[in-house]
Write a structure and sequence with these properties.
The protein is α+β, with helices and mostly antiparallel strands and 166 residues long. It is built from four helices and eight strands; from the N terminus they run βββαββαββαβα. The strands form two sheets. Strands 1-4-7-2-8 form a five-stranded antiparallel sheet, covered by helices on one side. The chain has a three-stranded antiparallel sheet with strand order 3-6-5. Helix 1 runs antiparallel to helix 3.
């Protein structure tokens, strides 16, 4: 099985503390499909490049949320004269592994990005550019959560005011 083209899942300032980037953007799939590891890598490069140039390397954290596990296989067929003598047709048609892909259903988050409040529009544009690398439909959402945490922004501010967040 060939290795996945996608090697890096977290880019930019991944060790930033949770208070540095209070806003979170998600790229969400709108279709049930298979996305190749090559497409995931191209989307990561596109989003990272746009954000590094326009916002700076230290002003965001991008995470790829999908992992390509599914093996793609291809049963090669000959198309020359006399091919019927050389081939077995659909018998033993398991095929050779040609790559890996991620199986995605509707509503699956493909990529997430933490940014400061002043870089939200730049993050939306970066994820829009990454969206062009994928087949099918995707949408960019601004999350109600505080960064990558599970707390809503209002809930986080309330708990922070009460001193319950360390």
């Amino acid at each position: 099985v060939p290795d996945s083209k996608l090697r890096i899942y977290d880019v930019a300032k991944k060790k930033a503390i949770y208070t540095d980037f209070p806003s979170c953007l998600h790229l969400v799939s709108g279709e049930k499909e298979q996305i190749s590891s090559e497409a995931l890598e191209a989307a990561r490069i596109a989003a990272n490049k746009y954000m590094v140039v326009n916002a700076g390397k230290e002003n965001f954290h991008l995470r790829i949320r999908m992992h390509p596990w599914h093996v793609l296989r291809h049963n090669k067929m000959l198309s020359c004269a006399g091919a019927d003598r050389l081939q077995t047709g659909m018998r033993h048609a398991f095929g050779k592994a040609i790559g890996k892909c991620a199986r995605v259903s509707i509503g699956t988050i493909l990529m997430s990005m933490r940014v400061g409040d002043h870089n939200v529009e730049k993050g939306k544009e970066a994820l829009r550019r990454a969206r062009m690398k994928f087949p099918g439909r995707q949408t960019v959402f601004l999350s109600r959560n505080f960064g990558f945490t599970k707390l809503l922004k209002s809930e986080y501010h309330r708990l922070n005011k009460e001193g319950k967040i360390i």
